[in-house]
Amino acid sequence: MEKKDIIKKLSEEFDSFYLYDEEIILERIKALKENFPSIKFLYSLKTNPNPHILDIIYGQGLGADAASLSEVEKSYDRIKDQKKIQYSAPGKSKEDIRKSLDKAIIIADSLNEIKLISEIAKEENKTVKIGIRINPNFTFTDNKGMAGKFGVDEDLFFEKIEDFKSLENIEIKGIHVHSKSQELNYEVIKNYYKNILDLATRVNEKLDCDLEFLNMGSGIGIPYEVEDDEVDVKSLGASLEEFLQTCKEELDKVEIYIETGRYLVGKAGLYVTKVRDKKSSFGKNFVILSNTLNGFYRPSINMMVGLYTDFENPPANEPLFTSSNSSQIFPLEERAEKETVTIMGNLCTGADVVRKEIEFPKVEIGDVLYFNNAGSYSIVLSPMQFASMERPKEVILRKDNEILVTE
Ligand SMILES: Cc1ncc(COP(=O)(O)O)c(C=O)c1O
């Protein structure tokens, strides 16, 4: 069955829903594995923790980048291997730490947290391997650091490293660096990887060659705008392999990880909804859709950011806001006739604007529309409790065309 026919059939049953395509997820996992043969990948499940998606991705052998205790537990239930789950987030509670000691490698995010993990491990009579998140003296584009809430500043890390080594019940075995998401230029990411490998080499020296893992974070973006291109993962992977050859001796025992969320699932998701109403007001045409800002917030937030800032150069603020037209909208059945319309949602706010005064194929009440780029940072970030609207369904299209509806 064609995808459009599947959408049509599902639309008879559901008012609005996400459709995630397993085949696309599998293709993207394959692309990473093929192009980065020396790297282990962790799925950043904050982007989409749908249980079927977790099964698909963990079923391919990936580990987890967990950002909360709940994400640690969801991942551990499936992966059952502490070494493949890294738990990195600022502001972990004592309970978060205690309950993850045996389920994940905890990445400490501050000096306080390093001490706290040591104290809790001691109380529990365990010695645990941990990583430390470093806020490096470089960004993707500059060779200088940036103030922020994540990690321990690089200079402070080196200043305190001997103190960390003497703390009881913890062994510092890894570092984590993540400085940006959604980069499309492979040369920029490549340069960043080079800086991280250099940092890891210096850390390893200070740790008496005891470093066991380096987590290079994320950064690999996806095309959202029509004119965007995919990251050249082939060239990126080849460059990284080359760099790894040059520091083979220094980082001999170090396992290297990359975290990724949107690259795996962003393009695999569609958001499908319906025209609820049409009207004219003061000479302007309005199309009212079901569940937009509250079901799939991204197109509406694009409009909001555009309304309140410079629409040509809005500030990207990942993962909430990427760019002004990050999801394109399509009618399932396209009529030749066009009209100028403002497309909005059905919430009690004028802020759920999806498109303002655009030329769009004519639609009628009941017509089905769908948005692309809806697999990542979409359902998880949509304010679904507003007005107690019905939550959109989540549907998985398996590679054999079986349909799974998430309960
Ligand atoms: C620490 C960290 N790792 C990984 C990611 C995943 O980023 P992406 O979905 O762009 O791959 C994020 C995103 O916010 C992050 O903060």
Question: Any overview of this molecule?
Answer:
This protein is of the alpha/beta class. It folds into 2 domains: 62-260, TIM Barrel (Alpha-Beta Barrel); 269-405, Lyase, Ornithine Decarboxylase, Chain A, domain 1, CATH 2.40.37.10. The chain has helices at 3-13, 22-35, 51-59, 69-79, 94-100, 111-123, 154-166, 186-206, 233-246, 262-265, 298-308; strands at 17-21, 39-44, 63-66, 85-88, 105-108, 128-135, 152-153, 170-176, 213-215, 255-260, 269-281, 284-289, 329-331, 338-345, 353-361, 368-371, 393-397, 403-405. Strands 1, 11, 12, 13, 14, 15, 16, 17 and 18 form a 9-stranded mixed β-sheet that branches. An 8-stranded parallel barrel has the order 2-3-4-5-6-8-9-10, surrounded by 4 helices. Strand 14 (338-345) and strand 15 (353-361) form a beta hairpin. The longest helix is centred in the middle third of the chain and has 21 residues, at 186-206. Pyridoxal-5'-phosphate (PLP) binds at residues 44, 47, 65, 88, 178, 181-182, 217-218, 259-263, 319. Pyridoxal-5'-phosphate binds next to strand 10 and helix 10.
Largest sheet, if any? 9 strands, mixed
Reported CATH architecture of the largest domain = Alpha-Beta Barrel
CATH superfamily of the largest domain: Alanine racemase
Distance between the termini: 24 Å
CATH topology of the largest domain: TIM Barrel
Question: What CATH first level of the largest domain would be assigned?
Answer: Alpha Beta
The tally of structural domains comes to 2
Portion of residues within helices: 25-40%
Mean pLDDT: 95
- Unreliable residue stretches: none
Question: What's the number of helices?
Answer: 11
Helix and strand sequence:
HEHEHEHEHEHEEHEHEHEHEEHEEEEEE
Question: Which geometry do the CA atoms define?
Answer: elongated
Q: Roughly what fraction of the amino acids lie in strands?
A: 15-25%
**Which ligands are bound?**
pyridoxal-5'-phosphate
Number of strands: 18
